[in-house]
Amino acid sequence: MSTFPPLKNNLLLRAARGLHTERTPVWMMRQAGRYLPEYRALRAEDAFFDVVRTPELAAEVTLQPLERFPLDAAIIFSDILVVPQVMGLTVEMIKGKGPHFPDPLRSPQDLKRLRTPDIKSDLGYVLEALTLTRHRLDGRAPLIGFVGAPWTLMAYMIEGGGSKTFSKAKTWLFGLPEAAHALLGQITDVLCQFLSAQIEAGAQTVQVFDSWAGLLSPAVFQAFALPYLNRIAFYLQENHPEVPRIVFAKGAHYALPALAATDFDVIGLDWTMDPRKARRLVGAQAALQGNLDPSTLYAAPEQIHDAVHEMLDAFGPVGHIANLGHGMHPDHDPEHARAFVEAVQGYSHAFASVS
Amino acid sequence: MSTFPPLKNNLLLRAARGLHTERTPVWMMRQAGRYLPEYRALRAEDAFFDVVRTPELAAEVTLQPLERFPLDAAIIFSDILVVPQVMGLTVEMIKGKGPHFPDPLRSPQDLKRLRTPDIKSDLGYVLEALTLTRHRLDGRAPLIGFVGAPWTLMAYMIEGGGSKTFSKAKTWLFGLPEAAHALLGQITDVLCQFLSAQIEAGAQTVQVFDSWAGLLSPAVFQAFALPYLNRIAFYLQENHPEVPRIVFAKGAHYALPALAATDFDVIGLDWTMDPRKARRLVGAQAALQGNLDPSTLYAAPEQIHDAVHEMLDAFGPVGHIANLGHGMHPDHDPEHARAFVEAVQGYSHAFASVS
After folding, report:
1. Would you list the domain boundaries of chain A?
2. For residue A164, is pLDDT > 90?
3. I want to staple A287 with a disulfide (CB 3.0 to 4.6 A). Which of A38, A113, A319, A322 is the partner?
4. How much is the pTM?
5. Which residues of B fall within a CB distance of 8 Å from A173?
6. Going along B266-350, which residue ranges are E strands?
7. Which ranges of B225-327 does DSSP label H, i.e. alpha helix?
């Protein structure tokens, strides 16, 4: 790791630890993606998973938003579904429809079809992309690695794609709890290894995306999601205590105190959470990340500035990583993303100096 | 109204007022629908909106679940999108895809296309269906009328159908707030008239469905959803004080205290809300309705019973209307719906007598 260029901007890493920063760090979920013309140009030639699997292209796409905006983090361009792939399931990305598993897990019998991947070879392309990107970043900002959370990956592996209710996956939680726990445990083992390898390859912080946490009741989250998130955070704390850990459980408003009690350092919030209330619930146990409604970027730049100022006031200057409450939309205007980044950096700079 | 048969089961109306009941009343959102073979048989011959528009068929479908299960309420079979239809927009129901507006509102200019409906003639079929059903119910249980909330209807009218993000509709909230308020006000006027007419036609309680409230941040809900919900509740309180008013703002976990302060008598909860916490937040200001995760009905009947008992314990015996946290799914087993109803009625009966 000592061969990587020195980090010149550690705002995000310090904010993640709850340390004072001269301004609030900012990045955007899906900051590399279809809203950028340079991304669409590159994707005109290559299929989604081809970009993901080609370290040179993945690094290029990862850096695209940093060439445009003075972002305080890069997040490696990849997909949470590379894990189900290396566990033995086929995943296709269908244009305009999202991910599709032609042969998902249909019954507990199908657990036998899953294999234990060799992370270094099977997911070597992600690791190479991280190392390459870390070099190319040249210390401009820290590099974020990521995975999908066990419940979210399980949901896709059983449902076979996106869904309003994820009924098939939930049938396992309610009707086949032992098989569900077996699957979640197996996924968790892979995620611990994969995150560890991402850190060794160059990730300076990692985020776990529990995109479908909002489909669970508090009791079901407690039983089927939280224990595995806990295991991941604990494993990383034991093995890479220097690397901050971020969790983003979208829609899991009910789980904030429980997540604050885990070994995650940062809790991502979606835009339905009131930042002041979140701060009261979490206290000094964790930093917070988020949470502007991405749809705010449809407003004019002046209105984006106003909304960002309100958000920054609500979170306060310490232990906050500014972000959207979910990813950029494909039809967002890049100049409105710029307004978001500039509003955070301009306002929080003044704000930190008076506080 | 004096010509209707006397009501023999007023459990729901009393629970809605926070009065003591000998057991907890129970009904299910989408209790009339595709999970029932008798519904699918009827729908094999008639298109969705044909059933809605034919009082005889709508009444028949409304009563189907009450012929099977000892439910404590009937809800008129209709659709929230009949209101955009009578305001001048075409709405089609596309099999397997849901509602589709071939010509949605594309810009504030399009507001001119909207007309002020004559409720009694344009929506006479809903009113007739209510009167017919109320007679056929013969006092077995109260009859619920309903509408979609202003924000939810606006979302469909601009988006033109279902959507993950409702980006187009949210663009109005963030970028065209005056047009948004004009549209919301116009919808609200129609809803007040329509609910009033439903009550005059036989509805004994009414529910407002804000199905897409969960897409809004607390501040945006406060600005664009709550004032119009407030107006509806206030109008009904002024004009029909004897009729309990239910609001179900799905996903609006952040709005519970605000909704409790409106003139709604009952607040519906989705399954992500902890009933004890909801009770603490709402106090005696409103009764609560909900909130078993519909996916629980994929479990075996014994497990459904256990989950229902936990839910009833959490809500307590007073001021609770048992329901799912959202609608029945088309692939649910009717016998599991029966297990839900029986579990509520059996357990709450014993429970009320000891408390």
Report:
1. 11-354
2. no
3. A319
4. 0.95
5. 295
6. 266-268, 287-292, 320-324
7. 226-239, 256-260, 275-282, 301-315
